């Protein structure tokens, strides 16, 4: 019997949910039939993504087909398919896809691993120092690594495991507590923090930027530099606090690691001098940071300002022209093409939900319910942020979670009087902080959890504690920092 291309039960549930909303639930007052059908398609799509009925790219293709064929966006068939494909002209979608292609160079050239071993060769004399080395290694490559899974799982995790094994800390031997457990936690919890710090540090961040623009009527459009500067101080405080807090929670048996620095030096010696391709990759890395931060404009004026996505295309072009990446490398970067596809479909549906009036309708009803509680905008904002954060226990995809809830929560909070910029920034940060919670929270978590250094209970305990710590840092330090920056 041939294997089905989809999982029967998750698929059946997704289809049933779609039909139930569309056909069985009466059309609420204040909504058009198109808006209700669009909601049914959207919720069914999210259910399919959560249930992993098919790969997310395949689900997105089907969603585009259903939206276009249903005529929910237009009675004209030509206009309907154009509307269904409209989001693929969005530059943010291309920014994340091109950046993922560029980040392939970090792995291919070995530059990412070299950076990690370099930090350890300097700070690795103590276990705590190795923890900070892992954290700052990840931070250093985060701006040009939109796949947080590739960064935490593909680049940093092999380094972490190599060090743990060097100290005879292996799950299969029951020696995880020597050093491996602690390093695995730092390896993972660096990932949500660095993901929150740059638009280009995880794939869903540009989706958040787009949803913020939709919710605010394009009044707030976060640039790469605005995001990075806003997240800089709380992110640095969080990255400084995290290794020490985890060190207290799960103290490693081995505290002194004088051999780690030599181990890292040996690895660097094996790699040899920086190669031509590594040098070019580092050059492109620095050029992109300068262009995304709009540094040339400070000296040469606004005439040299480039769009963030244009800069990414320039970076990839340099890597192709110099042969650091080949076209086959680009074609083989499945994650980039997959992201391009699902990203466009989800933004399209989010846009259509807004245009059909569904988001306004839902937000108004939610706003009325919160208003009845009499908790004011501050209490309402706290409720929205905490609900958004901890409902991630029910999601195995940050993308699905953000798509399902972000737009409505932003609209409600802003309508109830929350200061716009601080509120959208804390919601943006929360969309990454929520990755701390579970062993299925994002693509990086099953990679590191699967290495076996922690029990499920240890992982969830650390995840909950770090979610509280990170949120507190962003609220307190971030709030003061944003005040200093003039955001409210």
From TrEMBL:
GO MF term list: transmembrane transporter activity
Q: Which Pfam families match?
A: Na_sulph_symp
Q: Does the keyword Transmembrane apply?
A: yes
Q: Does this entry carry the keyword NAD? A: no
How does the record classify its membrane topology? Multi-pass membrane protein
Please provide, in alphabetical order, the Gene Ontology terms of the cellular component aspect for this entry: membrane
Q: What transmembrane ranges does the database entry give?
A: 6-25, 37-68, 88-107, 227-250, 280-301, 308-327, 339-362, 369-389, 462-482
Where is this chain's protein located in or outside the cell? Membrane
Key words of the record? Membrane, Transmembrane, Transmembrane helix
Q: What main location does UniProt list? A: membrane
* Protein family per UniProt: Belongs to the SLC13A/DASS transporter (TC 2.A.47) family. DIT1 subfamily.
In its UniProt entry, what is this protein called? Answer: C4-dicarboxylate ABC transporter
């Amino acid at each position: 019997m041939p294997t089905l291309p989809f999982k029967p039960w998750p698929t059946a549930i997704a289809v049933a949910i779609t039909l139930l909303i569309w056909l069985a639930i009466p059309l609420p007052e204040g909504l058009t039939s198109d808006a209700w059908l669009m909601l049914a398609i959207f919720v069914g799509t999210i259910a399919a993504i959560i249930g992993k009925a098919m790969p997310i790219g395949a689900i997105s293709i089907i969603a585009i087909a259903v939206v276009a064929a249903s005529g929910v966006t237009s009675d004209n068939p030509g206009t309907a398919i154009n509307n269904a494909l409209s989001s693929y002209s969005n530059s943010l979608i291309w920014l994340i896809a091109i950046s993922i292609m560029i980040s392939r160079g970090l792995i291919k050239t070995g530059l990412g691993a070299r950076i990690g071993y370099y930090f350890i060769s300097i700070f690795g004399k103590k276990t705590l120092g190795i923890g900070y080395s892992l954290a700052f290694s990840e931070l250093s490559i985060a701006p040009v690594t939109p796949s947080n899974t590739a960064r935490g799982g593909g680049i940093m995790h092999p380094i972490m495991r190599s060090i743990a094994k060097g100290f005879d800390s292996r799950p299969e031997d029951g020696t995880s507590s020597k050093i491996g457990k602690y390093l695995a936690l730092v390896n993972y919890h660096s990932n949500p923090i660095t993901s929150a710090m740059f638009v280009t540090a995880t794939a869903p961040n540009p989706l958040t930027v787009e949803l913020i623009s939709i919710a605010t009527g394009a009044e707030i459009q976060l640039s790469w530099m605005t995001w990075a500067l806003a997240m800089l101080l709380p992110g640095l405080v969080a990255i400084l606090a995290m290794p020490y807090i985890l060190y207290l929670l799960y103290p490693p048996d081995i505290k002194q690691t004088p051999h780690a620095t030599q181990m890292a030096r040996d690895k660097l010696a094996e790699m040899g001098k920086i190669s031509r391709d590594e040098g070019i990759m580092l050059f492109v890395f620095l050029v992109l940071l300068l262009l995304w931060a709009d540094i040339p404009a400070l000296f040469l004026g606004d005439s040299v300002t480039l769009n963030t996505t244009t800069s990414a295309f320039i970076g990839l072009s340099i890597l192709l022209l110099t042969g650091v990446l080949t076209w086959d490398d680009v074609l083989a970067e499945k994650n980039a093409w997959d992201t391009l596809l699902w990203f466009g479909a989800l933004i399209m549906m989010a846009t259509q939900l807004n245009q059909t009036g569904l988001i306004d309708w839902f937000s108004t009803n939610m706003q009325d319910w919160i208003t009845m509680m009499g908790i004011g905008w501050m209490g309402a904002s706290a409720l929205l942020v905490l609900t958004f954060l901890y409902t991630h226990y029910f999601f195995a995809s940050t993308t699905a979670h953000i798509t399902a809830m972000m737009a409505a929560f932003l609209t409600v909070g802003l309508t109830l009087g929350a200061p716009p910029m601080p509120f959208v920034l804390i919601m943006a940060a929360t969309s990454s902080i929520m990755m701390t919670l579970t062993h299925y929270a994002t693509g990086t978590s099953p990679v590191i959890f699967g290495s076996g250094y922690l029990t499920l209970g240890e992982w969830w305990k650390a995840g909950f504690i770090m979610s509280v710590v990170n949120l507190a840092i962003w609220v307190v330090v971030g709030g003061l920092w944003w005040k200093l920056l003039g955001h409210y």
